[in-house]
Hints:
The chain has helices at residues 12-27, 93-96, 99-114, 135-142, 147-151, 212-218, 251-256, 307-313; strands at 33-50, 56-74, 77-87, 117-118, 122-128, 172-175, 196-201, 204-205, 226-227, 236-237, 241-244, 260-272, 278-290, 293-299, 302-306, 316-317, 322-330, 333-341, 344-352. It is α+β, with helices and mostly antiparallel strands. Strands 8-7-6-11-18-17 form a six-stranded mixed beta sheet, with helices on one face.
Amino acid sequence: LPVLRPPRATDTASKVALVMGANATARAVDRRIRQVMVVYRENLQGVTIAGSDGFIAGDERTYVTAFVQVIAAEGGVVQTAYEPVGGFCGMELFDASSLEAAAQRAAQRAVLMLGARRAPAGKMAVVLSSEAGGTMIHEAVGHGLEADLAQSGLSIYSGKLGAQIASSLITVIDDATLPGKRGSFRFDDEGTAAQRTVLVEKGILRSFLYDRLTAMKDGARSTGNGRRESYRHRPIPRMSNTYIAPGDTDPGDILRDTPCGLYVRKMGGGQVNTVNGDFVFEVSEGYLIENGSIGEPVRGATLTGNGPRVLMSIDKVGSDLGFAIGTCGKDGQGAPVSDAQPTLRIPDIVVGGEVRQ
């Protein structure tokens, strides 16, 4: 996982120009743009791990992230859009992920949602775009597969190793070895080498995410997911880069095979109860599906459901894959992560929005 262009080798003026360019790009999209915030961050973490078993190793972890937040307003309606880029990498991030392109996407989304009507409420088919980010997999599935929660009975997946917990179309992987991804590392904070772990294989729960302590309790081996924010915290099981594996269905065919419903291009935040699997997620960019095509934009939609039931009901998995980045919070610790999913269809889920009489 080499860093090709260390941030320290780039002068401050170039970084300021990067931010100013993104700001100008966003503001130029539309006169209704009221506010633009562009943030650039670089983090260099020096890590030394010494274990009682004689293991000792050092590492230098470089993270570069940036985000653009845009506020648009018209006629008393205010819409906010957010677009981040980042990874376990240096300034080469911006060779592949243009910050100006991110600024343009955020500005266009904020303006688009100004004219969107309120989302309809009720049960309907939902197609989640691969652009939606992996909020669903991270929150509704990933946390429940962290071994400490499972062992303490705080996960809906407790005691279900070997059981079917999802549709046979669903395979879930956590992979800390992916080059450049925000959740990647060479070894975890206990010295276990980063690895690829299949958590769910064709719907069957195969493994939890283990650190050394939880692995010992289960008579298993650490999956290399013992992570901590810094030396001030203890290692606990955490996700790295977690994703639903792509299927073999063309994403366009999934949309065409769905006569009506909601198309989710971008997910917002959400909440999940890991004990029973219930969740609610916001939709930050959504569209009605009309006769198998993307129709008019809608705002104010939420998705409400139960993680295991939704996973069991997914009936189409696309051949694409889209990653999103974030900082995951748990037990007062933040950990850099990424998550991803292909285009997915949930045939029947509760959408919150405007109830029509």
